[in-house]
Amino acid sequence: MDYFGEQRKIVTPYRPGPGHFAKVKSRLKDGSMTVGQWYYCRDLWHTESRTARQFLYSHVAGKSRAIAAFIHCFEEHLQIAPFSKIGPTQRKTITYIDQSQWWATSMRRSLFTLLLRVAHKYVVDKDNFYEALFSIEMTRQSRPAIERFMEGYATYTGRMRGWYSQFGRAKPMTQERLEKLLV
After folding, report:
1. Which structural domain range is residue 86 located in?
2. Is 35 within a domain?
3. Which of 39, 69, 114, 128 makes an SS bond possible with 45, Cβ 3.0 to 4.6 Å?
C-alpha cells in the first residue's frame, strides 16, 4: 500500500475529538510536526486551510488504515495522480494527510473533508465503499452530485462555497442544474 505512509510523530497541546482538522504549524529538529489550532467546523477549516496540502485529521482510534484505503479507492476511481499520502501518527486517533494537488480547488477540498468524515466507516475486507460513502446525512443529501463527480465531472462552475451548501442544503437540485455546476 504505497498510499499508506510511515508513522510520523506529532506534538499537539490537547486531544481533539473525532472529526477535527489541523494544520502542521512547524517541524522540530527531530522531524516531529507541531500542531496549532484544531477545527471541527469544516467551513472554518476551509478558511484556515486554503494553502495547506499537509494536515492532520482526528478520528476514532485505529482508523488510519481504513481512512487511507477509502480515500485511495475514491482517488483510484477518478484516476487522480499522484495519490494523496495518508498515514498514522504515534497517536492512534490522529492521521496525517499529504493531500494530492488535484484537490486544490475550494469545492474539491470541501468534498475531500466530507470524504474524511465517512472514511473511518470503510472496512477493507467487506469492501463497503458505497455504504461508507453515503453513511452520513451530508453525503446522502448530496448523493447525485457525488455520483456525478465520480463519473468524472469534477470541475465546479458555480459561485457558492461549500459542497454541502451547494449540493445538499440548497434548493432541490435538478439534473439540468447539476450538469451545469459539475462539468
Report:
1. 10-135
2. yes
3. 39
